[in-house]
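Example 3.2
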Amino acid sequence: MNPAARVIASLLVSLSLLSGCGDEPSTACNGLDELCERTYDQVVYATTHNAFNASDEGFKLANQTHGVRRQLEDGVRGLMLDIYDEGDDVLVYHGVLSDFLGYARLADVLAEIADFLRRQPREVVTIIFETYASPESTRRAFEESGAIDYVYVHEEGATYPTLAEMIERNERLVVFTDRDGGAYDWYLPVWDHARETPYAAGKPEELECLGGRGPEEAPLLIFNHFLTQISGSPSLAEMINYDPYLGDRIEECEEALGQKVNFVTVDFYEIGDTLAVTRRLNTSR
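Structure, written as tokens:
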């Protein structure tokens, strides 16, 4: 396409977006009408383990192919992020700060999330932090990025609102942390709200339906479904991300633990059926 034709095509796309092409605005919540009246803890969220650690973003020993922006566009609604205080900034990286392995500023990652929420006003997103940063420096990153405008405030002991209520209040970014939870009314202690299945499996047969961190009475369940052999890899994801294995294992763990899964946490989400299984669970419950 020559430059003039490219400009004309771009203008036509922009005009079609502005006009809406006659389509009515969506009334769905996280892509499905039936989720609007469900409370936050009744919904299933496709979730990326070490979401920032993506090969497309230059990270080595990656857990994902695509970065956070693409993950959200594709339908991921839960993001696991490791955060560290480094000087006057908060960085995301995995285990060791290294130019070779890769790192990014938390504020930059949060800005991508905030931009998505701004463009998609009917979507609810969750962050689960593995935290090695202070609450104060983390809050500054939220403020710098604009993500602070969307955080969900939870009163201790309260039940969760419906997705429609969260959307109406524009509190569409739920933030959990494994350290210093409660420092702010939006900075929620994850192991008060959730429990998880074990996460250290290296082979499919080592994946277990047992309770890990978090109390049995916690209302949310993090279903860890990834393999690690030094790091994750596409070949490991190929072993376990497909149906019927993924769906059968969710069903097995729900029965064993007496609780519905909320966060289906995987490496290389685009390999296999994670998004399709998540949607199926959301439409069948």
